[in-house]
Amino acid sequence: MAQPLARSDLSDLSLRLLSAAVLMPVSLAAIWWGGWYFGIFVILLASAMSWEWSSLCHAKFGTIVFVYATIISSLALTFNAAYREVWICVAAGAILLAIISRISGEESPVLLPVGTVYLSLGIVSVIWVRIADTGGLALFMWMVSVVIATDVGAYFAGRAIGGPKMAPRISPGKTWSGLAGGVASAAFAGLVIVQVTGGKSYIVVGLLSGSLAIVAQCGDLIESSIKRHFGVKDAGKLIPGHGGALDRFDGFLTVAPVTALMTWIAGGSPLEWQ
């Protein structure tokens, strides 16, 4: 029999819901309007992630500047559709960061550049999905719905059902039942998006949505392993009940690149696949 949520769990849930009630309308408005609204939102998000990553690595000021420069420059190039230059920027930034980290004696000379590339590619993909000709608002909202549904489904299924741990050494709180709940919720969210957008590819989008739920959970596990490496509970304290920007948006850092890649390869939105 499933155990009822304890008082501390209810308090944590209330804080999460309150933060989501504030953050979600702002995020959705920026996504819906696009343009400068979306640009400002992404810049703020990228800045928060850059700061949190640099703080986790205990980076020195000079190195932090290069982290910011790499991530924000790749972001700006993406908004200008200079995609070839994006890869040059990210590669050059990573190489310079690796060299500077070694010379300056950084505590994490490997993780600093690797993490910067990881963040850059994730954020670039988020922007591309929203602004590219093969992307757009419908595709972006599908991606957002899948990630949110995965988090919600995994949270409640894991709490209500429990059972065997999925990766106890990395994230003790995650269970296989939570993963199943996340996959089911994501698949359902995908079907809702198909219905709203007037599409017909229910089976394809449902299967893709469930698959992306697994990708989102991988992003969550990557974030958990990083925090465990540095011995911290949260990457930051920006969002009450959720931690930092890295804690809240970790799923997008893996889902966005996969969504962008399969859209680019197919030459069209998965919502239109037959």
Give structural notes:
The protein contains ten helices and two strands, in the order ααααααββαααα. The chain is globular. Helices cover 76% and strands 3% of the residues. Helix 5 (111-131) packs across helix 10 and helix 6 (137-161) crosses helix 8. A hairpin with a 3-residue loop joins strand 1 and strand 2 (171-175). The protein folds into two domains: 34-131, no CATH class; 134-274, no CATH class. The protein has 274 residues and is an all-alpha fold. It has a two-stranded antiparallel sheet.
Query: How many strand segments?
Result: 2
Could you give a short account of the major beta sheet?
2 strands, antiparallel
Rg estimate, integer Å: 19 Å
Runs in which pLDDT lies below 50 for 5 or more consecutive residues are 1-8
Helix content: over 70%
Strand order of the largest sheet: 1-2
Report how far apart the termini are: 42 Å
Assembly classification: single chain
- Based on helices, strands and strand pairing, what is the structural class? mainly alpha
Question: What percent strand?
Answer: under 5%
Q: Could you tell me the mean pLDDT?
A: 88
- In total, the number of domains comes to 2
List keywords for this structure.
two-stranded antiparallel ribbon, 274 residues, mainly alpha, single chain
